[in-house]
Amino acid sequence: MAQRPTHLLQHRMNMHSLIQHLVQTAGEVIVGKEHRIRQAVACLLAGGHLLIEDLPGVGKTTLAHLLAQLLGLQFTRVQFTSDLLPADIIGAAIYERDTGTFRFHPGPIFTQLLLADEINRATPKAQSALLEAMEEQQVSAEGETRKLPRPFVVVATQNPVHQIGTFPLPESQLDRFLMRIELGYPDHFAERKVLLGRDRRVMVNELEPVMNPEQFMDLRRLAEQVHASDALLDYLQALVEFTRTETRFVQGLSPRASLALLRSARAWAFMEGRRHVLPEDLQSVLPAVVTHRLRVASGAESTADPAAELLDSVAIP
Hints:
Blueprint: H1 6-29, H2 34-45, E1 50-53, H3 60-71, E2 75-79, H4 86-90, E3 91-96, E4 101-106, E5 113-117, H5 124-127, H6 131-136, E6 138-141, E7 144-147, E8 153-158, H7 171-174, E9 179-181, H8 188-196, H9 200-206, H10 213-224, H11 230-245, H12 255-271, H13 279-290, H14 306-313
Parallel strand pairs: 1-8, 1-9, 2-5, 5-8
Antiparallel strand pairs: 3-4, 6-7
Helix pairs in contact: 1-2, 1-3, 2-12, 3-9, 10-12, 11-12, 12-13, 13-14
């Protein structure tokens, strides 16, 4: 077998070291949540959008800002509220008296990383402004289609649906998020470190980027090249087909979800320094990829965790 050129191997090693530095630096701000940080980074490396759902005050917005800062991405935050309109996100044509014409003024969506803060406090009409952008990397407004910057990533935070003033995200919106994660409360030692440390927002603002957008896109391309064997694809398809035939689930995983699993598993394997995907990589990303896409049928005998049930029910071929 021919040896891979030394400079290509060295380039891959350098890129992998950037990821490790990114995760380590992020872990100094979001303490005790390395696995969640790795999931978030894998989501962005896989070219996906990230939904962070949890109680207020656990660091959701800080994580989004932290990722943008370390990746060197242009960052815009939109606070989603019940009176938010699609034009507040996309932009609108405004009449200019000097020229006597309407000129389109781009909204905050024209950025590289958009933080949709508390996305489920906006109405479905406002939420729908993100659908085309998240899927097509473009927006249509005033009779014209405009491309978004590359990369374009949406990181949305969401409060639990039982809280007052929230609107549930429709399935079409949820399906556009590659992953959904929860941060949870810090453990005793992590919280003590936070209490004794500096303000996390100040720490984020003082951080230097670990990479630039061009390097980030290069990492994405390298992650896409990670090999997935036929046996690995057999396992992935067995997991997906189980959700489509098992009556405990309202509906099975879509082809988009299948691709999301594969992309995420490749990104996870790449972060682990491998050039091929293992079943363990698929299992590591599966909960974050499928939990928000699966609903258990009313009255069905099932565990509270559909992802764990799925992994327990489908054997590795």
